[in-house]
Each structure stands twice: as structure tokens, then as C-alpha cells.
Design a protein that fits this description.
Elements: H1 3-22, E1 28-29, H2 31-38, H3 42-54, E2 58-60, E3 67-69, H4 71-101, E4 104-111, E5 114-121, E6 137-139, H5 144-150, H6 155-165, H7 178-191, E7 194-197, E8 204-212, E9 218-227, H8 236-256
Antiparallel strand pairs: 1-3, 2-3, 4-5, 4-9, 5-6, 7-8, 8-9
Helix pairs in contact: 2-3, 4-8
Length: about 260
């Protein structure tokens, strides 16, 4: 790709994003509105609107030349609004769980082959504690939260992620063999929780359960993380019970809203 074509592509992306931002102040748009406000030719405005319409981000009624918000944009808005609502509602439960177990507690969601930490509460009782990861993305296959969410995916969808991104080694304990990872997925599904024993960060262990919707479909993961010396395997069953009680409280509160 030449520098000229790359620059043209970036300009198109910029104009598309600016066009979508216009919807915050105007419920519908005409080609002439976009042309005037973005300072581009009407033919360019029409191409942008047509492309966004074909991808579902805009829609156009048969009897009007005006374009409005499309179903894909509404779906994304609902998705992130739902995440924000879940984060706000879960916050006090994360704080209570952190106080109960004396360890860091995280709320995470799956984003492609990674998990994004929506919120985290870090304990302050100990001199040795784990890092706060709120707002960070980490490799899903190497984290307890990621494993519990990946295990709920259809096999074909999970394999598609492997083929595109692989199972890179994060530490010497990361599971990088696809067959071994599928065995781990079977174990997670049967157990109803996932553990990470130094697979994402040396010396850090974690245990996680999924947060379910009313159809028992995971919408997030709730995890406890701690230095390995404070989270041996013997402590896992008790933490799983605490995580499940907190999960139930979050789910009940979320769907009661």
C-alpha cells in the first residue's frame, strides 16, 4: 500500500467516525448535511452513508432520503450500556468479596482472544499483593477469567480464535498445546470454575467463575487473584464457594433492575 492510499484510507475512516458522531446532535442526516459539515463532496458523503448502511450502522427508510442510526450501532450501544450497568451494580459486591477473602477481586469480559478487566478491587491488608488490572486486557487462554469464558464458547468459535491468534506462551506454565487446552476446557466446564496457576504471571494464582444471565449464558467472569503463597490449590474450593455466592448476588441484582 502506498503512503497516498494509506492516507486516503485513514481520511475515510476519520470521516466515517465524524459522521457517526454527528448523530449525537442530529437524529437523521441527509447527504447534503454530511457533505456540508464534513467539508467533503456529496458523492463522497453518499459513499460513506451507503457503506455504513450496508454494514448496519445506518439505515434509510424507503420513502425518505434521510439516514438514521442503524441496528448494528444500536446493538453496540446496548452492549456497552449493559457492561456499564453490570460494572456499577457489581462494584459493592466486589468490595465485599475483597474484604471477605482478603485478596484482589476482578470483573472481566471476553473481548476476542483477550479478557478486559472492567473493574478491580485490590486488598490492602498484606505487604505482598497483586497488581490492579482494571482497564487492562490480558490473554484469555492464560487467565482464570478467560478460561471460564472460553470454555462456554462453541468449539468451532474457540478453534477459530486459536487458528487466528494461537496460544502464545506467557510464562513457562501457560498451556500452549491446543489438545491440552481443550482438555482444560472440558475440565473447566465440568468443574464450573477455572484456575490459573502462574500461567499469566509468575507467582500469581487466580480462580474464576462466570457471571450468568437468565439463560445461564456467561456475560462476564468474577475472579480472585493472589500471590501463589496465599492461594494454594487447597484454598480453591472455599474461594469458589465465595465467588459463587457473590455471582448469585450480582446476577439477582442485575436482572432485578
Amino acid at each position: 500500500m502506498t503512503n497516498e492510499s494509506a492516507s486516503s484510507g485513514l481520511a475515510s475512516v476519520t470521516n466515517a467516525l465524524r459522521l457517526l458522531s454527528m448523530l449525537s446532535s442530529q437524529p437523521d442526516l441527509r447527504v447534503v448535511d454530511v457533505s456540508r459539515q464534513l467539508g467533503i463532496a456529496p458523492s463522497t458523503s453518499h459513499r460513506l452513508l451507503t457503506c455504513l448502511r450496508e454494514e448496519g450502522f445506518m439505515q434509510q427508510t424507503r420513502t425518505s432520503k434521510r439516514y438514521s442510526v442503524g441496528p448494528e450501532l444500536l446493538r453496540l450501544a446496548r452492549h456497552f450500556s449493559s457492561q456499564n450497568s453490570l460494572e456499577r451494580l457489581a462494584r459493592p459486591h466486589l468490595v465485599s468479596l475483597c474484604r471477605l477473602v482478603g485478596e484482589a477481586v476482578n470483573l472481566q469480559i471476553l473481548v476476542g482472544h483477550e479478557v478486559l478487566c472492567l473493574d478491580a478491587v485490590v486488598e490492602d491488608r498484606h505487604d505482598l499483593h497483586v497488581k490492579r488490572i482494571a482497564g487492562r486486557r490480558v490473554a484469555a487462554h492464560a487467565s482464570a477469567a478467560g478460561k471460564v469464558l472460553l470454555a462456554a464458547m462453541p468449539l468451532t468459535a474457540r478453534q477459530a480464535l486459536y487458528s487466528e491468534h494461537g496460544l502464545p506462551s506467557i510464562t513457562s506454565r501457560t498451556i500452549i498445546d491446543p489438545d491440552a487446552f481443550e482438555e482444560e476446557m472440558n475440565h473447566v466446564r465440568n468443574a464450573g470454575f477455572a484456575i490459573n496457576l502462574g500461567e499469566r504471571e509468575d507467582g500469581v494464582h487466580a480462580v474464576a467463575v462466570s457471571v450468568l444471565d437468565l439463560n445461564d449464558t456467561p456475560m462476564a467472569a468474577l475472579a480472585v487473584a493472589a500471590p501463589a503463597v496465599r492461594l494454594p490449590k487447597a484454598r480453591v474450593p472455599g474461594l469458589v464457594r465465595d465467588l459463587r455466592r457473590t455471582r448469585a448476588a450480582i446476577t439477582a441484582g442485575y436482572f432485578a433492575c
